[in-house]
């Protein structure tokens, strides 16, 4: 199917795509661009532009250009309980906003960097069966002015996912994944494969899943709980900023690890402190 080319003017235009793949240029002005159901490439150009999504299929490429540009998700008539927005790439987009009528998840194949993008009513991110990279270091709920955490799924592949300063849920799925909570009280789920989990600052819950997993401790602050540490298979990676490790019995069946006299803590659930020794630690 041939790609339709749709061009705006120097004014504020409303540009509507077709049912196939579209190439839409807004040029100057505060434009509204709606791609349709194909895999579309949309370029806002100068001005404060809005890219609209109403539940159509397709994986779209967004380039906002100059100005403050927004992806708007509204009036979704969809038979499912939630909506996936397929994003091929994002360039110069400052906000992604949903009307909140249905849970909305951003779906990517490859890399999706949402650092600094403001969001409203976006529930999370979904990867693909390939190797995905997703980061959402700072996410704001612009509707209420409050912050809200994200849910991220890697599915298959060797994924790298980095959360926000909020309380995130990050699930690597299959593959050898790297999961970084960043800040907040995060839940990291490695799933299948040999995963690396780093909670960051905050009281995090880390579950490696099957495979030989590494649990990384680099920063001070917080108490991280490892729910399924396997002695002899999993490892505890300690960064250069943490040292002076002390081990204590915790709730009779678990281990409390103290770093730097209380700068950070880790709890190994169901693992007696007598079974932990120097072979469990690697130094970064």
Automatic annotation (TrEMBL):
Domain of life: Bacteria
UniProt key word NADP: no
Keyword Disulfide bond: no
Compartments (UniProt record): Secreted
Principal subcellular localization: secreted
A single GO molecular function term of this UniProt record: calcium ion binding
GO CC entries: extracellular region
Keyword annotations: Secreted
InterPro entries (UniProt xref): Hemolysin-typ_Ca-bd_CS, Hemolysn_Ca-bd, RTX_toxin/Mannuronan_C5-epim, Serralysin-like_metalloprot_C
PANTHER family: S-LAYER PROTEIN (PTHR38340:SF1)
Name of the protein this chain belongs to: Calcium-binding protein
Origin organism lineage: Bacteria, Pseudomonadati, Pseudomonadota, Alphaproteobacteria, Hyphomicrobiales
């Amino acid at each position: 199917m041939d790609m339709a080319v749709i061009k705006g003017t120097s004014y504020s235009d409303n540009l509507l795509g077709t049912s196939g793949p579209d190439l839409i240029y807004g040029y100057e002005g505060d434009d509204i661009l709606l791609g349709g159901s194909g895999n579309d490439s949309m370029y806002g150009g100068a001005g404060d532009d809005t890219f609209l999504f109403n539940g159509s299929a397709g994986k779209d490429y967004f380039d906002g250009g100059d100005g403050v540009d927004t992806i708007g998700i509204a009036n979704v008539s969809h038979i499912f309980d939630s909506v996936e927005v397929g994003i091929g790439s994002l360039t110069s987009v400052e906000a992604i906003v949903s009307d909140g009528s249905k849970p909305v998840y951003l779906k990517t194949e490859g890399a999706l960097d949402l650092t600094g993008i403001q969001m409203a009513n976006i529930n999370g991110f979904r990867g693909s069966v390939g190797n995905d990279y997703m980061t959402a270091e700072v996410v704001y709920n612009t509707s209420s002015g409050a912050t809200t955490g994200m849910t991220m799924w890697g599915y298959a592949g060797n994924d790298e996912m980095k959360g926000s300063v909020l309380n995130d849920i990050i699930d690597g799925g299959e593959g050898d994944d790297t999961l970084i909570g960043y800040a907040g009280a995060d839940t990291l789920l490695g799933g299948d494969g040999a995963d690396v989990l780093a909670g960051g600052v905050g009281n995090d819950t880390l579950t490696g899943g099957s495979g030989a997993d590494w649990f990384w401790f680099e920063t001070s602050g917080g108490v991280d709980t490892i729910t399924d540490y396997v002695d002899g298979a999993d490892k505890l990676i300690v960064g250069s900023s943490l040292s002076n490790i002390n081990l204590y019995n915790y709730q009779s069946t678990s281990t409390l690890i103290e770093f730097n006299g209380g700068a950070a803590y880790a709890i190994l659930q169901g693992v007696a402190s007598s079974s932990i020794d120097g072979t469990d630690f690697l130094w970064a």
